[in-house]
Amino acid sequence: MSLFFSDTLRKLRTEKGLSQQELAEKMYVTRSTVVRWETGSRLPDAAMISRLSEVLGADANILLSAAAQSDECPNVVMVDDRKLILTGGLPILGEVMPNATIMGFTDADEAVEYARANRVALAFLDIELRNTSGLDLCRELLKINPRTNVVFLTAYSEYALDAWGTGASGFMLKPITSEGVREQLKNLRYPFWTGGEGV
Fold first, then answer.
1. Measured distance between the N- and C-terminal CA atoms of the chain, rounded to whole angstroms
2. Taking the CB of residue 88, how many other CB atoms lie within 10 A of it?
3. Do residues 39 and 68 touch, judged by C-beta distance below 8 A?
4. How far apart are CA 155 and CA 22, in angstroms?
5. 122 pairs with which residues across the strands?
6. Is 98 helix (H, G, I), strand (E, B) or coil?
């Protein structure tokens, strides 16, 4: 539930003296879309937040910050078919994102099942997986939830160009480091609150 954003939006709308229907008309969306934003069942994307800030005469950073803090306990997954990489990487993700629920998978199908049952905010994906490609896994996760941020992990920089064609947020060379993860978090397409310092 995105309550922090929904409360902020409702407050700004009422201060502006707009009904949900009036805001919807100014935003060129349906009233039900505004209702979902204000009940916390949906978050608008960055472009829509920018338009909201114009319509409401509010600082876009206030709305972006509220959206970033709306996922109180985001789900983060790391998929790599080498257990050693997971063993070393998961504690680093936990250190950088202490507020997140972090799950590791060596099997892509298990990661997909998890994503179907849980809204995944961020996925770190190895590109070369045993039975599939991390690029294909990325596309599958984005079909399930287009707002999933994906960061590719690989030891081979030549994959970078292919990775960018998938809608991913970032690309990291192994080994994973806390500094590298923090840098990736700054560039997410759909930011969320991690509970970590400086993020």
1. 21
2. 14
3. no
4. 52
5. 76, 149
6. coil
Backbone angles phi, psi at 21, to 5 degrees: -65, -45
For the record, the structure tokens of 167 come out as 């809608």
What element of type H or E holds 9? helix 3-15
**Which is higher by pLDDT, 154 or 150?**
150
Complete domains list, the chain, with CATH: 3-68 (1.10.260.40), 75-185 (3.40.50.2300)
Scored b (16 or more CB within 10 A) or e, 49-59 reads bebbbebbebe
Beta strands in 26-147 (DSSP E): 75-79, 101-105, 120-126
Inter-residue contact 124 to 78 (CB < 8 Å)? yes
Distance CA 51, CA 46 (A): 9
* Residue 147, both tokens: 């707002």
How confident is the model over 16-70, as pLDDT tens digits? 999 999 999 999 888 888 998 888 767 787 778 889 999 999 988 888 777 766 5
Is residue 163 very low, low, confident or very high in pLDDT (cuts 50, 70, 90)? low
